[in-house]
Design a protein that fits this description.
CATH architecture: 3-Layer(aba) Sandwich
Radius of gyration: 17 Å
Distance between the termini: 11 Å
Number of strands: 7
Strand content: 15-25%
Number of domains: 1
Shape: globular
Number of helices: 8
CATH class: Alpha Beta
Oligomer: single chain
Structural class: alpha/beta
Strand order of the largest sheet: 3-2-1-4-5-7-6
Order of helices and strands: EHHEHEHEHHEEHHE
CATH topology: Rossmann fold
Helix content: 25-40%
Length: 247
């Protein structure tokens, strides 16, 4: 079975940034997993909830509901501090993602670039940095050897992608986005993507902003191919599993 792993920073990232491909590939029989690094407890939109722990619990449930709606096979929220991923222990976070990659054994890994995607959120950028290191290190016998002694084996995923776009948000900090190398048509799944985002009821004030951004993006989700298991020439792709389906 083909497998895809998506690493995000906050509940609602999975729908807002990756919802189209998660719905598309889940429906096609790909086993999709999402790992979210924080529970989003520092969100500006709190739906009247004052306590961080209460908001965490609610946002975890919203995340699970959204992932279920998108057809995700495995979803998990880790407990790193929202808004502080740049101060998290790099080796620890990367090690957890290495463990996930070695356990889930995905063929394709998707996350953010270091710029933090179109929102320029530092947590998004850090999620991409952790994921980039984990993608490489999961395949090496010299990294996190304790995991190998516990029975896991190394895993060399086939491809790593960053989500990207062709528009910017003037109200956000400037970003230098990765060029588009994969243009994935999600036209049959745009409504499901919107519905998944709506599962994040605490973030309802963001729904109009999200839908406007989706209108700008059209019926595509865009990605940049960062690394491949086998040396290959760069070319425009229309399927994240291109070249893998033949393996």
């Amino acid at each position: 079975m083909l497998k895809l792993l998506c690493v995000t920073a906050h509940p609602d990232d999975e729908a807002g940034c990756f919802g189209g491909i998660l719905a598309k590939y889940s429906e096609a029989g790909v086993e999709c997993s999402v790992i979210c690094l924080t529970a989003g407890e520092r969100a500006a939109n709190r739906n009247g909830i004052a306590a961080d722990e209460e908001l965490k619990a609610i946002r975890r449930k919203e995340f699970a509901d959204s992932c279920h709606h998108l057809g995700v096979h495995h979803c998990e929220v880790l407990n790193y501090a929202d808004g502080a991923l740049d101060r998290a222990d790099f080796n620890e976070v990367t090690g957890k993602l290495v463990h996930m990659i070695r356990s889930l054994r995905p063929h394709v890994v998707v996350s953010f670039g270091a710029e933090g995607f179109v929102t320029a959120h530092p947590d998004h950028g850090m999620a991409g940095l952790f994921t980039s290191a984990a993608f490489q290190w999961a395949a090496r016998k010299t990294r996190y050897t304790d995991q190998l002694h516990e029975g896991l084996t190394t895993w060399k995923a086939e491809k790593l992608y960053y989500v990207t776009t062709e528009f910017s948000l003037p109200e956000r900090p400037a970003v230098s986005l990765a060029p588009v190398t994969a243009r994935i048509n999600i036209s049959p799944y745009v409504n499901r993507k919107n519905e998944a985002f709506a599962r994040h009821r605490t973030q309802a004030p963001l729904q109009p902003i999200f839908e406007h951004a989706q209108q700008q993006a059209g019926v595509y989700e865009l990605f940049h191919l960062v690394a491949t298991a086998e040396i290959t020439a760069m070319e425009m792709e229309h399927d994240l599993f291109s070249g893998i389906r033949e393996l």
